[in-house]
């Protein structure tokens, strides 16, 4: 269908050295010298060149190379992919180009090469700086390797993010506090904080069901999630999204694109593409349509997704939405009454309680256009 230009590009590299016991992402553990990785990377490069020839990369403003563990595929393969991107689109310093990495495969040499070829933001999957918790999470790096990887990244990159996890079995508030303080002391510019979720069909789920592993304590997770803004706020970070904290100028523009209705192109296995125009929005994954929204549903989804952001939505946006969704004003008044949303300075913004009860908050908005 005729569509608005894609502004964000996601590239999925589904390979890891080891698949963690809690992971339910589209990944596979595979030998680093496997021909399957070479074949996959060659196909990705062909896709990049084809999309460029079709004109689909001309308006790209953010690129995100995720996984899996992109750093695991190594310098040579990543260099080939980044070179293809560089000759296929305007991969200038103004384009935010993020790449995920894990500590065990993030070497100084790889950092040097991806930086030279246009990556300007690294996101490192630390999860914790506590060796006992890393063992519980089935990670293959230790705290010393995590710290060394972050320090090495900061030698070239000024935009470095780390992921931290809370609610890990055996994790105390003091242990999570130590992780937050270590992140601050290392000098990263962005921190994402995620509560552990025990997903179905994972080893963690089987371990919980058998009594081998303690189940997630949602009260403990909420307590730790509530600690993050205090510690990080004192260090000059601001919370801009339910799970994300950044120093000024270092918000992840690619992630914000997902929450603000920006069309995005996904390349690689399981990558999702969101194609839209004024009246229709489609999401396609592996050649299958997984979402097909009309104009009213698009409007409701945009309001819902923006409530993941601290800024929420403006009163003017809600008034305009009422033209398509007559009940929207009543819904937002109800969310304010139930303390899921606050109304300040001409905006509706999520409260901490609203985020902790996200399914309730988001569901009441999205149900405006079933």
Q: What can you see in these coordinates?
A:
The chain is an alpha/beta fold and 370 residues long. The protein has 2 domains: 8-257, tm_1862 like domain (pyruvate-formate lyase- activating enzyme, Alpha-Beta Horseshoe); 296-366, Arc Repressor Mutant, subunit A (Orthogonal Bundle). Helix content is 41%, strand content 22%. It is built from 14 helices and 17 strands. It has helices at 35-53, 75-88, 108-116, 131-136, 143-156, 173-186, 203-210, 218-234, 253-259, 295-306, 315-321, 328-337, 352-356, 358-366, and strands at 8-13, 15-16, 28-29, 62-67, 96-101, 121-127, 160-166, 190-195, 237-241, 244-247, 264-267, 272-276, 280-285, 288-294, 313-314, 341-344, 347-350. The strands form 4 sheets. The chain has a 9-stranded mixed sheet, with helices on both faces. A 3-stranded antiparallel sheet has the order 12-13-14. Strands 15-17-16 form a 3-stranded antiparallel sheet. Helix 10 (295-306) packs antiparallel against helix 14. The chain is globular and about 55 Å long. The chain starts with 7 loop residues before the first strand and ends with a helix. The mean pLDDT is 95.
């Amino acid at each position: 269908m005729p569509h608005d230009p894609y502004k964000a590009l996601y590239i999925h590299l589904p390979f890891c050295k080891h698949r963690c016991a809690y992971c339910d992402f589209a990944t596979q553990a595979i030998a680093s010298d496997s021909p399957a990785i070479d074949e996959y990377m060659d196909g990705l490069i062909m896709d990049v060149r084809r999309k460029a020839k079709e004109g689909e990369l001309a308006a790209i403003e953010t690129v995100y190379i995720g996984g899996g563990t992109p750093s695991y595929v190594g310098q040579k393969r990543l260099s080939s992919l980044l070179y293809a991107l560089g000759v296929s689109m305007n991969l200038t310093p103004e384009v935010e180009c993020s790449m995920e990495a894990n500590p065990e495969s993030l070497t100084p040499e790889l950092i040097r090469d991806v930086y030279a070829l246009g990556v300007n933001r690294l996101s490192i999957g630390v999860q914790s700086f506590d060796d006992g918790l890393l063992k519980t999470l089935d990670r293959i790096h230790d705290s010393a390797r995590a710290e060394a990887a972050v320090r090495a990244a900061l030698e070239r990159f000024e935009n470095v993010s780390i992921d931290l996890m809370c609610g890990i079995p055996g994790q105390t508030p003091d242990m999570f506090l130590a992780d937050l303080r270590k992140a601050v002391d290392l000098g990263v510019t962005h921190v994402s904080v995620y509560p552990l979720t025990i997903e179905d069909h994972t080893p963690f789920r089987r371990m919980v069901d058998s009594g081998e592993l303690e189940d997630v304590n949602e009260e403990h997770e909420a307590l730790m999630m509530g600690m993050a803004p205090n510690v990080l706020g004192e260090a000059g970070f601001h919370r801009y999204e339910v799970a994300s904290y950044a120093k000024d100028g270092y918000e992840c523009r690619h992630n914000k694109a997902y929450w603000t209705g920006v069309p995005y192109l996904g390349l690689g296995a399981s990558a999702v593409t969101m194609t839209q125009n004024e009246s229709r929005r489609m999401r396609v994954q592996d050649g299958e349509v997984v979402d097909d929204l009309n104009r009213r549903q698009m409007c409701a989804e945009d309001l819902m997704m923006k409530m993941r952001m601290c800024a929420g939505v403006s009163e003017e946006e809600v008034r305009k939405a009422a033209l398509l969704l007559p009940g929207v004003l009543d819904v937002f008044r109800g969310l304010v009454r139930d303390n899921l949303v606050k109304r300040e300075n001409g905006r509706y913004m999520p409260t901490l309680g609203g985020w902790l009860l996200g399914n309730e908050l988001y569901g009441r908005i999205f149900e405006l256009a079933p």
